[in-house]
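testing teh design pipeline on a random one, pls ignore if ur not involved
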């Protein structure tokens, strides 16, 4: 990590205050959008690739599966290092990430799920098939324990250097960040509560709260059980619906409070819900995976219509007074 030639890590921790039920809390956002290629997945891509090279020697070509951010980061890093990259994604990939992957000179392959197969599993299957057929090194981020290790040994220590916190909020996504933070906190025994925030249809770590429903926000939950599940004890879980995520995103943008991405806003909304239940002042941290630039061009045309105007409007009306009480903290 110390040998990383890119501007990855040492991202800012931005403080806000929020008043709920008359109690003023401190809410800190770990802004991973400030990494060189714009997301927390920069850390994962560099860590897995560099560790693979350290163990196996130089590689000429790599292939891996990604919903978007990791693929963008891996393609960008490989371009800088002169390594050919193939990224296997799904039709749900954002236009921003798809264009970025191609701009970095990588090959983008869209995996079509087989009957009964979720998109995550389809991506893994196709990436494995390409590796076997073409001899490319399959990094396998969804099952490679170097993924959570990058957060256990890099992201989490960086976050908790600014502790203590009463709680830490992350989204489960495909599981690497959540497992890495869980392993770190278990080893350090610092007493911080880890809370995963995801929609009802997600099943990355625990059984979904509903049996059907398609995920609508990229990187916010997963409909495949994570390869990194099996934490003991099971993590705390908060379910936040996607209409609330999209409504909060537009409210934060309108107020110019922050420029975090959609799943990051989901994490923040989960933290606000948790804080609303507290009877005394709390200090909490949210790990914010990426930035708003990946979603702004499609927020009105793609994301809001996916949840429906009525659900979006109701969530916005409910969250508007909550977001209105959120304000940047001035450093002492």
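output:
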């Amino acid at each position: 990590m110390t040998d990383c030639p890119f501007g990855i890590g040492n991202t800012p921790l931005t403080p806000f205050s929020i008043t709920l039920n008359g109690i003023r809390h401190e809410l800190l956002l770990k802004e991973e959008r400030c990494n060189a290629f714009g997301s927390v997945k920069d850390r994962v891509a560099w860590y897995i690739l560099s560790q693979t090279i350290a163990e196996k020697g130089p590689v000429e070509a790599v292939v891996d599966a990604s919903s978007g951010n990791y693929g963008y980061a891996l393609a960008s890093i490989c371009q800088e290092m002169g390594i050919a990259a193939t990224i296997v994604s799904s039709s749900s990939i954002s236009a921003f990430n798809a264009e970025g992957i191609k701009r970095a000179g990588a090959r983008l392959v869209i995996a079509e799920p087989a009957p009964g197969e979720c998109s995550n599993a389809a991506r893994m299957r196709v990436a494995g098939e390409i590796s076997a057929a073409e001899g490319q090194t399959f990094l396998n981020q969804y099952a490679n324990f170097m993924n959570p290790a990058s957060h256990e040994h890099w992201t989490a220590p960086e976050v908790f250097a600014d502790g203590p916190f009463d709680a830490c909020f992350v989204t489960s996504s495909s599981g690497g960040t959540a497992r890495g933070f869980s392993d770190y906190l278990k080893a350090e025994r610092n007493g911080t509560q880890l809370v995963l925030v995801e929609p009802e249809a997600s099943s990355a770590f625990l059984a979904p709260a509903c049996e059907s429903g398609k995920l609508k926000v990229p990187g916010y939950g997963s409909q495949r059980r994570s390869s990194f599940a099996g934490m003991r004890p099971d993590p705390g879980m908060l379910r936040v619906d996607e209409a609330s995520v999209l409504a909060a995103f537009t409210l934060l943008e309108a107020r110019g409070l922050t420029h975090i991405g959609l799943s990051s806003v989901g994490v923040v909304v989960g933290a606000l819900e948790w804080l609303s239940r507290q009877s005394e002042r709390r200090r909490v941290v949210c790990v914010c995976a990426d930035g708003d630039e990946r979603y702004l061009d499609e927020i009105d045309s793609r994301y809001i219509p996916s949840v429906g105007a009525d659900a979006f409007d109701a969530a916005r009306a409910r969250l508007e007074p909550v977001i209105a009480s959120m304000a940047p903290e001035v450093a002492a």
